[in-house]
Amino acid sequence: MLISGTANTILMKLQNQTPGVDQVPFQHPYVQCAIMFVGEFLCLGVYGAKKLYLKYYGKEEVIGSPGQAQAETLHLKTNINPLLLAIPASFDCIASTLMNIALTMVVASVYQMLRGLIIVITAIMSVIFLKRKLYRHHWSSMSVIFIGVFMVGLAKFIDPKSKGGETKIGGLALLVVAQLFAGCLLIVEEKLLGDYYLDPLKVVGLEGMWGIIFWCILLPILQQISCEPSQFCPTTSVQMDCSLPYQYAFASPLHSSIASA
């Protein structure tokens, strides 16, 4: 998870910095988020293939597994209304979009370190909304994390153009807000799915389905909103985001390989 998460940040930043159409930076945070949900939706295909395999070979799914045994003991539900998963998908959509925008404004190392703030935010939210109890070692660990994140953010706030690349203050703010929504996502999922025993592939796939639906609505709207080229708008158009230059850029082998990864 650490390796794939770091690789994701590096590849996304590399994609943002690679010259696209007309040699301008390839920055399409909204489309990138939409494609992320397409990747999540593909998990439904893996889930379906898994079900067919088990059915074809006459095997019962996860019979005898610790999770299944616990589910039967606790009388957990094994089916969920797909509409309920639209709630965490909406938080995921907002958080991922804000983080993608922030990544165009801050260096990758600062981006990755500031994301550690989600540990503190989620822990505090779990106390407030889930009535969890945290002990001294939890609070001590969170204090160390918060101090580290604060020092990183403060250093870039004082000297945005320090060694390693320029960081925009707006990007730092977006990252903090994004972690709030990401924390809400985790809390909602734990609260919502606490009474269920579900295949993770199915959950991720259904959330991806809702994400695609959201972006099928949002992308056409964003392409109609006038916006001067800035940190919130791609430099390739006067719309908040335009998927057409994104499609043209796939003619480049480098962009294709990065996007596929």
UniProtKB/TrEMBL annotation:
UniProt-recorded Gene Ontology molecular function terms: pyrimidine nucleotide-sugar transmembrane transporter activity
Principal location listed in the UniProt entry: membrane
Domain of life: Eukaryota
Transmembrane annotation, as ranges: 29-49, 113-130, 142-158, 170-188, 200-222
Keyword Transmembrane: yes
GO CC terms in record: Golgi membrane
Coiled coil: none
Pfam families: Nuc_sug_transp
Protein's membrane topology: Multi-pass membrane protein
Entry keyword set: Membrane, Transmembrane, Transmembrane helix
Subcellular location: Membrane
Protein name per Swiss-Prot or TrEMBL: Uncharacterized protein
Organism: Halteria grandinella
Lineage: Eukaryota, Sar, Alveolata, Ciliophora, Intramacronucleata
